[in-house]
Every structure is written in C-alpha cells, then in structure tokens.
Automatic annotation (TrEMBL):
GO-annotated molecular function: methyltransferase activity
Organism: Desulfatitalea alkaliphila
Domain of life: Bacteria
Name recorded for this polypeptide: Class I SAM-dependent methyltransferase
Xref: InterPro entries: SAM-dependent_MTases_sf
Length: 217
C-alpha cells in the first residue's frame, strides 16, 4: 500500500486537482516530481523551465512547500513551438484573440491560487535563456520541460544544468528513445548530460528522466 504524504500543515496531500489542469504530465510522473522536490528542497531552491498551466508546478510546489522551500517557475507563457496555431498541440482555449498570441499565464496563476502555492512558487515570465544571463543562485533541482525543438532544449540544458548543486537533481521530461513515439530533443539532452560525466542516472518514471549531480566533477 502506498503511504499518503502529509503536507506542511499536517494534512494529507491531495494530488487530484492536477487532473483538472491542462498539461502533458502523467500522474505517476507528477508524483515522482513531488517526491524528488521533497528531497531536493532541503538542499536549496528548485527551478522548472516550462510552467504552461501549472500542472508540474503543483507537484513540485507541494514538495517544496512541505520543506519550506521555493520553486522558481520560468515560462514566457506564449506557448512553445508545437503549441502555436496550426500546430499539433495548439489549444484554442489558451489563445488570446486580443493579442493574437497564446497566453497561459492566467491559467498558471489560477493553478497557484487554487493550490495555495502563491507563497511557494515564484513565476518568472521570460525566456529561460534570458533569465539565465544573470542567474547566480545554486539550485537543488532543475526540471527541463520547455520547448522541444532541439535548439531550445539544448539551450535550456546549457544554461541551467551548470547551476545545480552537488547532489542536486536534473529532471528532463518527454524522453523517448524511439523516434516513432515522440520528439528526440529531450532524449538528446539526457544523453548529453550522461556523456558529460557530471551526472548519475536514477530510475526513470514514464518519460521522466532523473539524474543526480555528482560531487567533485
């Protein structure tokens, strides 16, 4: 039997609200995010790239909140390449005709309010590589789930993996070894992380790759 986690206020953690949030995260992957954030937040702040409507931020944020930690959540909130009009993952409910752009920020903020995470999750509305130019805070967890074009995913990895503390976690979503199952950019940066010699692989959950930063390298 799986033990139900208890939150920072002594309540059983309820993950069911995540079912009503738009996103592409499997519940088992979400629970793994929670478990890792719970461990990582004791070391330092956590960060995710790709907030979308807040499904992953809910899981990560609940883990951080239980430890009294912080999750920085970076997204320009204009949708990734595959979420634009005419593309496979375009959602008309996220399109703002007034600006002729995708706009997920209002949905993300609604999630934080609903989950009581506004004092745990810090939204950063900008491209991740712009934020990285002035970033100096060591991180205990980096979750890469932004744009899935190879150049975008590689830029996120290059900009943020170097900020991980020894023992910190690098998480990469949507890893498919078979090109017929999905895009290859996340798989490529996962392999690049392994090839760097700075990370050890931990068991995957679904398409969620988990690596831990080694000390002394």
């Amino acid at each position: 039997m799986t033990t139900q986690p208890i939150d920072d206020r002594g309540r059983v953690v309820d993950f069911t609200p995540a079912d009503g949030i738009k996103g592409f995260l499997d519940p088992a992957e979400g629970r793994r995010l929670y478990d890792i954030a719970l461990s990582a937040a004791a070391l330092g702040p956590c960060l995710e790239i790709g907030s979308y409507c807040g499904k992953s931020a809910l899981y990560l944020g609940l883990g951080c909140r239980r430890r009294g930690g912080i999750l920085f959540s970076i997204d320009h909130h204009r949708g990734s390449e595959e979420q634009q009009p005419g593309e496979l993952y375009f959602d008309p409910e996220l399109y703002d005709p007034r600006t002729s752009t995708v706009d997920t920020l209002r949905h993300f903020r609604r999630t934080l309010r609903m989950a009581d995470l506004e004092e745990t999750v810090v939204p950063i509305v900008a491209p991740s590589t712009v934020v990285a130019r002035a970033w100096a805070t060591p991180l205990s967890l980096v979750f890469i789930d932004g744009g899935h074009a190879l150049a975008t995913a590689r830029a996120d990895y290059d900009a943020w993996a170097r900020h991980l503390l020894p023992g910190g976690y690098l998480l990469i979503h949507d890893i498919f070894s078979d090109p017929a199952q999905g895009g290859q950019a996340p798989h490529r940066i996962y392999q690049a992380a392994l090839a760097s010699g700075r990370f050890e692989p931990l068991p995957m959950t679904g398409t969620l790759g988990v690596l831990r930063r080694l000390a002394g390298v």
